[in-house]
Inverse folding.
């Protein structure tokens, strides 16, 4: 047993063996059933079940190995294996039962469609993400920040506006979408407004908490330095609010994507991921729907992680990262 | 009863908004009305100023129009096309979805608290499922379930659950981890089995977190239910009314439905609040004289944690 072998597999050889066997079984079936058009026999379905069981069991054993790793990439391995397992099992099951591709397309089919229609989807994504989600996100977040600053400064505004902001957070924003689309028009600005409204309220509530939940000791210290209002905000309140602001910014990325896509359900100018999803779902073109979802998810995850990266750069001093 | 110090400022803000609404309404509606008059549309009014409050599709509807719209859509109360029944259907889907999400959320939360490996393998995808515009899956899921004979309110409840399970998972996981180490040590000294630890310590400790999560999840589930109704063939529900009136370009009706669904959202969250107060009386009465010492201590810890 070489040291490399031991480093990689450690005491987990049984887990890796099960994982390999399971994947092998599933992939072997997919390869064998690639061109078949009749459903598989029940023995073969049992085989798929065994393969899946092997993968899950192996995964459960193997994942223990990655529990304490500090490297985020290596720590991601179990999650990546989970996704792979789900995809391969879905592919095998769909092929075994010969589910018509108009109903549920196999993962491999979705991937090839994604490559085929990538130009259209990228144009859609530009409209949805850059014009609608990003513009609305930036406008909504800046307005939310400003409002929170004002509210934290003037008690009257706090008492008059903050209860409404809390109330608004329990309102289903989607109901706003059709009204706004009718009011502003079917081009991208209406969706940007929807996004801005969606991200506005979490931003106000979170930033306000960050600006006001300050230890009395720090406030006393500022007072003994004779710091004026502006200095207090610059050196104490804003830094204290940064983690809260970033929380809202991260939450906002998700809300922005959802807002833009749902807004397009109510009227679009022939472009956009939400528009594409709705049109193709109506025509049973689910391979394109899935491709659009993949594009939207990849962008959503990348955006979220970008904000997360900014957060780590700007609030690295904060307790939660030490 | 003590009057909240927020009341006067809130009223002032509400009045200011109302006072600004009229001029704003005229400002945005008069150009539309003028254009309608110029094209010679048959309108029951002569000047643009008069017409601004009577437009068929106003940019901002006048209060009179909204009032009439409410009358049209609310009455008769038992009509299948009126808001009350449709709102009830949507609320039902939302609540069923929330309960489903609660079951799934508990399952994931217990898994994540019990096994770090489970957390490593699944948590990234649970988080990713949120950065993904989940709503995009709704139209497809409904068509899919419809193919296998699942129709009516159930697919909507599933979508509501799909959107709502995340806050519950995270909230419950936080709650299950919240008992302080001393209490966990105590359970160990009592030689409590893992089951007993969960039943007697972790679950009770997670209740406050559960309700906080439920409030967030309730709104999410309502959004899910409405979107599911919009993007599918449905015969009842707020979302169906929205989609119908959106196609018919009935702007006033859309405003009325929007406001009603806002009220529905607020009511549903208020329901969770009420349940919370009903089921966790020790939190409401924290510091009160009648609170048993043990429970008062518990709630203080939760307040700090």
């Amino acid at each position: 047993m070489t040291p490399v072998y031991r480093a990689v597999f450690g005491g987990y050889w049984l887990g890796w063996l099960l994982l390999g066997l399971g994947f092998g079984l599933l992939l072997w079936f997919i390869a064998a059933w690639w061109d078949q058009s009749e459903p598989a026999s029940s023995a073969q379905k049992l085989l798929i079940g065994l393969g899946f069981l092997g993968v899950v069991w192996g995964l459960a054993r193997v994942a223990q190995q990655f529990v304490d790793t500090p490297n985020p990439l290596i720590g991601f391995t179990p999650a990546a294996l989970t996704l792979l397992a789900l995809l391969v099992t879905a592919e095998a099951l769909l092929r075994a039962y010969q589910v018509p591709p108009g109903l549920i397309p196999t993962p491999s089919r979705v991937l090839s469609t994604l490559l085929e229609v990538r130009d259209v989807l990228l144009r859609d994504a530009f409209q949805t993400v850059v014009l609608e989600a990003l513009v609305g996100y930036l406008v909504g977040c800046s307005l939310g920040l400003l409002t929170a600053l004002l509210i934290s400064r003037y008690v009257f505004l706090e008492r008059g506006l903050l209860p409404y902001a809390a109330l608004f957070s329990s309102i289903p924003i989607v109901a706003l979408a059709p009204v706004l689309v009718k009011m502003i028009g079917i081009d991208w600005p209406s969706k940007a407004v929807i996004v801005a409204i969606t991200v506005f309220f979490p931003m106000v509530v979170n930033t306000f908490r960050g600006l006001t939940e300050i230890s009395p000791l720090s406030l006393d210290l500022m007072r003994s330095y004779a710091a004026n209002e502006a200095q207090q905000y610059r050196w104490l309140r804003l830094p204290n609010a940064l983690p809260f602001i970033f929380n809202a910014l991260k939450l906002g990325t998700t809300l922005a994507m959802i807002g833009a896509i749902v807004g397009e359900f109510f009227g679009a100018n022939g472009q956009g991921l939400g528009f594409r999803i709705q049109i193709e779902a109506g025509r049973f073109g689910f391979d394109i729907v899935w491709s659009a979802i993949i594009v939207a998810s990849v962008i959503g995850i990348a955006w979220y992680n970008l904000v997360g990266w900014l957060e780590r750069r700007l609030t690295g001093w904060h307790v939660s990262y030490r | 009863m003590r009057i909240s110090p927020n009341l006067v400022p809130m009223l002032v803000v509400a009045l200011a908004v109302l006072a600004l609404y009229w001029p704003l309404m005229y400002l945005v509606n008069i150009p539309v009305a003028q254009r309608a008059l110029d094209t010679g549309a048959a309108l029951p009014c002569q000047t643009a100023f008069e017409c601004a409050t009577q437009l068929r599709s106003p940019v901002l509807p006048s209060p009179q129009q909204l009032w009439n719209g409410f009358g049209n859509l609310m009455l008769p109360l038992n009509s299948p096309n009126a808001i009350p029944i449709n709102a009830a259907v949507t609320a039902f889907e939302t609540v069923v979805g929330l309960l489903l999400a609660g079951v799934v959320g508990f399952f994931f939360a217990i898994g994540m608290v019990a096994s770090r490996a489970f957390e490593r393998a699944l948590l990234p995808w649970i988080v990713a499922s949120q950065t993904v515009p989940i709503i995009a899956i709704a139209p497809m899921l409904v068509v899919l379930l419809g193919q296998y004979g699942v129709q009516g309110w159930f697919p909507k409840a599933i979508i509501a659950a799909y959107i709502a399970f995340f806050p519950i998972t995270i909230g419950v996981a936080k709650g299950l981890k919240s008992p302080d180490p001393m209490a966990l040590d105590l359970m160990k000294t009592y030689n409590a089995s893992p089951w007993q630890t969960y039943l007697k310590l972790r679950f009770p400790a997670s209740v406050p977190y559960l309700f906080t999560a439920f409030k967030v999840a309730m709104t999410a589930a309502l959004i899910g239910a409405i979107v599911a109704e919009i993007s599918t063939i449905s015969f009842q529900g707020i979302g169906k009314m929205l989609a119908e009136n959106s196609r018919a370009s009935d702007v006033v009706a859309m405003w009325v439905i929007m406001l009603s669904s806002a009220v529905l959202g607020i009511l549903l969250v208020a329901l969770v609040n009420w349940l919370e107060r009903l089921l966790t009386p020790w939190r409401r009465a924290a510091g009160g004289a009648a609170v048993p010492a043990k429970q008062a201590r518990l709630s203080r810890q939760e307040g700090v944690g």
